[in-house]
Amino acid sequence: MKSSSIHNINTGLIILSCIVAFYIPFELFLFSYGILGPLHYLTEIGWLHKKNYFTKGKYDFLFLALACVVLVYWNYKPPKHYGLTADIILFSLFVSAVFVFIKDWLYRVVIFALALLFIGFLNNVPHYFTWIAIFLPTIIHVFIFTWAFMLYGTLKEKSWQGALSILVLVACSIILFTIQPHGLNYEVSDYSQKSYRQFTELNYRLINFFNMDQLTDIKQIFTANAGFVIMRFIAFAYTYHYLNWFSKTSVIKWHLVPKRTLFITIGLWLVSIVLYIYDYNLGLEVLFFLSFLHVFLEFPLNVVSFTGIGKEVLALRRSKS
Question: Are 202 and 138 within 8 A, CB to CB?
């Protein structure tokens, strides 16, 4: 399939995601996260493995996987009066940048030490935990990193259709925030509230951080207008994040794997769907490691995307000068 056709499809998927998110945001998110999410994790990890995770070393990914194991363990058995979630995530991001550019372990160790000192300083910065532990693996991962991935590809191809997709993505995001109609008679069902309870902290912090409303109870995200507005954006960002991945099958070719791997992937995906249908919160707990693992293993690709954007922009400036 031609890249122009893929960009046009993506533009349509962006608009579709926006429309559905506007009317049934909680339901759309739960569907996308439970059905599309696991297949995305499994196929992306397989594709990243073929690409050696975009790092210099063959086994660099093992460090990121180990960091994810520690994070999951810390999440379920956290020591009292001490949090490490944000530090693990940010250190893994710094480490990923080092893995992308540097192979010599002497330089790596020195930079790792400096990164730890820098992270120690950041612990005293306001909103550090919110941005790193809450926003980075969620909304930044599915929206900002997806945007960067799209922009990098568009700049390389010099495609106006790709640029249009990016503009539509931004426009839809703005629309979801600015258009706040009342009287839609939208109510969040008890099932949706129960299934979404492990994500409520994200909504609550986004609403309060951007001063959209002064909520006094986290359950107000299911009834307040600000709760609906922020949920529309979250549902839109997550849904398109997954659809963007699947729409680029002919370009990324993540499906070109041995049949045995493909069957295992489909089998695990079907099991995950059954878990979510049986008990959504059970599915979240069982797949918690996999969901975070794909975030950690994608960090090097995110670094490559942003550095690639910088190189393409500089190349454009040189060509015009």
Answer: yes
- Asked whether residue 129 is assigned to any structural domain, the reply reads yes
Q: What is the pLDDT of residue 182?
A: 66
Which conformational region is residue 319 in: left (phi greater than 0), alpha (psi within -120 to 50 degrees), or beta? Answer: alpha
Are 23 and 268 within 8 A, CB to CB? no
Rounded (5°) CA angle 225-230-236 = 130
* Tens digits of residue pLDDT in 196-225: 999 999 999 999 888 888 887 888 899 888
For tokens 């839609």, the residue is 184
Instruction: Choose among 79, 168, 169, 152: nearest CA to 305.
Output: 152
Asked if the structure places residue 191 within a domain, the reply is yes
Amino acid (1-letter code) at residue 150:
M
Please tell me the distance from the alpha carbon of residue 99 to that of residue 93, in angstroms, as a whole number. 10
List the domain range (segments joined by +) for residue 175. 3-315
CB 58 within 8 A of CB 52: yes
Reported pTM: 0.93
Domain count, the chain: 1
Task: Name the one residue in this structure whose structure tokens are 């925030």.
Answer: 177
